[in-house]
Amino acid sequence: MSEPFVVLGLDPAKAVSGSAVLQIDGDRARLLANARVTTQADRAETVARACALSAERDMPLVVVAEEWDPPRHKRPPKTLPGVAPETSGFDQKWTYKTILGMGEGWGRWTAEFERFGVRRIERVTPNVWRDAIFGKKRPKDTESLKRAALFYARARLGLEGVDDNVADAVCIGLWGMYAPAVLDAARKERKKRGSM
Length: 196
Hints:
It is built from six helices and five strands. It is α/β, with parallel strands linked by helices. It has one domain: Nucleotidyltransferase, domain 5 (2-Layer Sandwich), CATH 3.30.420.10. The radius of gyration is 19 Å and the shape is globular.
């Protein structure tokens, strides 16, 4: 069983992010703070609060943030022997504007991590955390997934009256309870803090 640590769960975005600060102690999670984040000042306040809650409890802090799966080329349709296949298409959600926006959004969060000295950051794709939290037979459409996150956050932590970005951040943070990379990051941060 791992020692307690603090997780800052993030559903990071350029326009609207969700954040949740959780205290993790084995199989128990306690929500310490959450926020809908829309400005750089909100990002700074979110990271500062996570750092302060970590320091107050003398527990390591690990950021667990969502990232997207890399783009995939769509496979060309099967063709008859001797007939050249059509050119494969590129995943349409990966436009230049999307990639630029994701980079800008993550860059804004990174600036605050650097400002406050946050060192342990783990990333997880939506399919990985959703499969772990909701199960593999979960809904696939965005609207149903957002409702599932709201339901899960309410059922697990009693969280009411938040938007789906915050609910996603809670679920992302809860995924970190069991993720070996997150547990290892907390252990390394604890060890580094102990040697300072």
